């Protein structure tokens, strides 16, 4: 790769409400440590009916779009499994909300939690072919399994937005990646279902298998030594899942390096522990968490990324840290989003969870007055979603 291409900017958004996982565990007659340690979660984002994949994407992307890059963006790739229309792309709504040029190509991508990574790789190739362009890549989702279900403690939601460009300020993407796909039924959501169906233990086994396959394949393709990686970040449907996968390869390196990878992993899951499952954006929230919280990342170091989407598709690729990368991160904004949220007591959380706009043709008004986000969904009128901005 003659020209460096990679992540130039990163944005993140999650709504301002959360539920405490220890309290949720007690309300479900479970030992709190089952949630806090067993799955590795402290808090879980609660999504109001005034937010959906489109508005959360807009709130994340708004952080990284300004007069310097607005006219350079010529492609939007929107990864989601929480699409709001079977025909019209969420990227079209997003283009309008962000006031991006009408010449921008806008496409929605779907393959469970893998779709944002597909967008990143497609964006990289696009920039290599059009060096002056920039691509906005989105991962936005609401993870819903239902109240009182086994999947309830792995819910959450939010959005990640990245700008892929030449000469990136944060991370360059190394040439090549390792890919694996198989038709399996570990997690799926038929058209008639509003909540996912999942075979949890089987999915966890497949996740680890796909990681080992793609990591080994990448090593064979590139002659990468595990010792060359400063850190490995994972798609984190719950944070203990990434730890299980990491432990599966630690025997391939020295004890000193294994401990280093474990330390960096703890930094990489700090934000995910506070938010829960982002589906398509989960890997990139983990990456952002590492970039902001790690005490030992330096320019030139390599970070491995493992992306997994049930059904199933996996990919492993490597990025390189760029000089002064922290200057390009919106650390005060990210800190504010996570630190100024409001805790919901369990009955209030359950009421908000059940208040989602129904999938019917009737008019509906959301509780948008309580939502102070810049972009929000006010409801549905004449079978059309009503998006607004402040």
Mind summarizing the main beta sheet?
A: 10 strands, mixed
Count of discrete structural domains: 1
Helix content: 25-40%
The CATH homologous superfamily = Thiolase/Chalcone synthase
- State the secondary-structure class: alpha+beta
Q: In terms of per-residue confidence, which ranges show pLDDT below 50 for 5 or more consecutive residues?
A: none
Shape: globular
Level-2 CATH architecture? 3-Layer(aba) Sandwich
User: In CATH's first tier, which class applies?
Assistant: Alpha Beta
Query: Quick one: how many beta strands?
Result: 18
GO molecular function, one term: hydroxymethylglutaryl-CoA synthase activity
InterPro entries: HMG_CoA_synt_C_dom (IPR013746), HMG_CoA_synth_N (IPR013528), HMG_CoA_synthase_prok (IPR011554), Thiolase-like (IPR016039)
Family: Belongs to the thiolase-like superfamily. HMG-CoA synthase family.
Pfam family, one: HMG_CoA_synt_N
């Amino acid at each position: 790769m003659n020209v460096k291409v990679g992540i130039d900017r990163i944005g993140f958004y999650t709504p301002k409400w959360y539920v405490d996982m220890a309290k949720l565990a007690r309300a479900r007659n479970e030992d709190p440590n089952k949630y806090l340690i067993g799955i590795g979660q402290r808090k879980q984002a609660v999504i109001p009916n005034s937010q959906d994949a489109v508005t959360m994407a807009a709130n994340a992307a708004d952080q990284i779009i300004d007069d310097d890059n607005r006219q350079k963006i010529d492609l939007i790739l929107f990864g989601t499994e929480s699409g709001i229309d079977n025909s019209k792309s969420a990227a079209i709504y997003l283009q309008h909300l962000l006031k991006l040029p009408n010449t921008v190509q806008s496409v929605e991508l779907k393959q469970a939690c893998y779709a944002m990574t597909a967008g990143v790789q497609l964006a990289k190739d696009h920039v290599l072919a059009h060096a002056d362009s920039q691509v906005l890549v989105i991962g936005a989702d609401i993870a819903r399994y239902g109240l009182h279900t086994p999947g309830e403690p792995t819910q959450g939601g939010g959005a990640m937005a990245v700008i892929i460009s030449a000469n990136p300020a944060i991370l360059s993407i190394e040439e090549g990646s390792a890919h694996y796909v198989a038709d399996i039924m570990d997690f799926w959501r038929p058209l008639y279902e509003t909540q996912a169906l999942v075979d949890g233990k089987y999915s966890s086994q497949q996740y680890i298998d796909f990681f080992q396959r793609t990591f080994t394949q990448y090593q064979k393709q590139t002659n990468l030594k595990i010792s060359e990686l400063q850190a490995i970040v994972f798609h984190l449907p719950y944070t203990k899942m990434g730890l299980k996968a990491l432990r599966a390869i630690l025997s391939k390196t020295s004890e000193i390096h294994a401990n280093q990878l474990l330390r960096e992993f703890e930094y990489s899951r700090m934000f995910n522990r506070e938010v829960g499952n982002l589906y398509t954006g989960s890997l990139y929230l983990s990456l952002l968490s590492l970039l902001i919280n790690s005490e030992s990342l330096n320019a030139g170091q390599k970070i491995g990324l493992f992306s997994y989407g049930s059904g199933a598709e996996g990919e492993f690729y490597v990025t390189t840290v760029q000089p002064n990368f922290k200057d390009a991160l919106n650390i005060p904004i990210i800190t504010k989003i996570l630190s100024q949220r409001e805790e919901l007591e369990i009955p209030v959380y359950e009421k908000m969870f059940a208040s989602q706009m129904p999938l019917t043709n009737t008019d509906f008004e959301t509780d948008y007055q309580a939502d102070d986000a810049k972009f929000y969904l006010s409801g549905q009128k004449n079978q059309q979603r009503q998006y607004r901005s402040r």
